[in-house]
Amino acid sequence: MGELVDKKISVSIDGQRLFSFKSLKLHQPINEHHRFELLIDLETGGNRYVHNLKDSAEWLGKKISIHMKKPFLGVVTNVSLHRKNSDYGYILVSGYSTTYLLETGRNCHSWNDRSLGDIVNELCSNAGVRAQVNPEHTASLGYICQYNESDFMFIRRLACQYNEWLYYNGTELVFGRPKRPAPVSLEFGTSLSSLDIGVQTLARPAKVFSYLSMNDQRIAEDTPNKPAGQDMLGYKAFQASMEMFKKPAYQYAQSRVRYMQEMEMYVRKKQEAETAESHYVIGTSENTELTVGCAVKLTSSFLERRRSITSESLGEFIIIEISHTVGEASYYVNKFKAIPAVTHTLPAPDIAMPMAETQMARIVNNTDPRGKGRVQVQMNWQTEGMHTDWIRVMTPDGGSSDDVKSNRGFVFIPEVGDQVLVGFRYNDPNRPYVMGSLFNGTTGGGGGQGNKCKSITTRSGSTLMLDDALGSVHLSDPGNSKLDMDGSGNATIDSAETIKLVCGEASLELRKDGTILINGKQIEVGATDSVDIGVGSDGDASSGIGMTKEELQATSQKMVINGSSSLNVGSSDGTTTLAAKGDVTVGGSKVSLN
């Protein structure tokens, strides 16, 4: 039955200890869930005389504890019964570390002004997963988005984008670099049955860039030429790789960087993660104290000549992957891969970045605190309280010029409540921008029959309308002032109160009461044929002045010509006649007639 006599390794499911099992396999890598497979006989699973999984199926979803020197906590996700030929068969129980509780459905969620530690702690707390969170990147992230990812997929992406440590230590999810544990001593030739030592060329030069829109600044930084977190062999592998690959790759920063200090940290940690396995060891041992994240101190010893043993320290290493195999009769062996303990950053998880699709959103705020015309939007999947950071709005033309420092071009910022289309730079869900606005069934009116009308209407109702059927242009405001050009050569300006034209010190004003005011230093009125000025009603002038090239006529029921200093009435070449049907009176202090 394979009972473990020495009790060094035991297994409990849902708090109940199994008194025996046939075999156990446990695989523990960094950046991933740990997986186990437990093979037990039918009697341990309930009853050897069974035809189905009625009893052992109760283990599904239950916690499992594997007791070694370093404990492991997991959750059962699969139970199967295997039979072959005429034997009773056995039960295979498999599952993952408790981090599997973070494998929610693919979800969309967003945060504003939260740190990496805040987000990881929140997700782990919601899932009931114990966590040890201590990231190097402690600043607020601004806007960060989980997009079509399970909670664990999202945490892995954060670890990749910010090059933070991520592994399960058997009982807790570790996010961020922990304190280095005391090493376990292993010696090849005694406690190590096999040992492989390798170096590889992983380093590549790169120039990483990003764009800061608030400053209109492109920043770029080269990955360092000198490695950090490498021992001597790792340093040699780094240098050899850099000699092989001299041309730098140009790449955009996968995480959003907001200033140069963040860029310098990003390229440093990026290179550390990519080159962490430049020097590695692979070993096989029977020490049950080893687990992922564990430090080991390796020594190589062998018989150099008779009665002479030579030893050499190989250094300290951090285990990044280990597989445990337990069999009957207390058989145990593990195989591990480790990298130098001086490493600053673990190898990054190999993940596919989410690709954000163009999608609809609504404007929730357009009062940019910096006055740059940015908006905040809420996409359809964002629930109450969720929204983007301040994001830019695409326009057909926008920029500056020598004469116009800002707002040159087409400036139309969407209104709160407007439906807009959102795109994403690099298809990154953390980098949205507004592509344009969308009408819907309640806001759209179309362009009329034959799509003849084009218009611009602002929030207050000011409108510019162009009618392609008539060729006309209509401009109006909420106060009922209008400018109409009918497309046939006629233009009309209409206002409910006043129309005023001003140029320097000259002005023309038309008032709704019929008053017309003309003001200027010098007013000239000219005509090629005639000028008529009249006063009257219904188009019939009772008083007026008419002028042609040869004649000026003034007519009125009563006419007064008065000069305060002098009055001259005469003709330079012809005659002057004063006539009336009644009396003609000429008077003055002195009257001279010649």
From TrEMBL:
The record, for InterPro entries, names:
Gp5/Vgr_OB, Vgr_OB-fold_dom_sf
User: Domain of life, per the record?
Assistant: Bacteria
Q: What's one Pfam family the UniProt record gives for this protein?
A: Phage_GPD
What residues does the Gp5/Type VI secretion system Vgr protein OB-fold domain cover?
361-439
- What is the protein's name according to its record? Phage-like baseplate assembly protein
State the organism named in the record. Hoylesella pleuritidis F0068
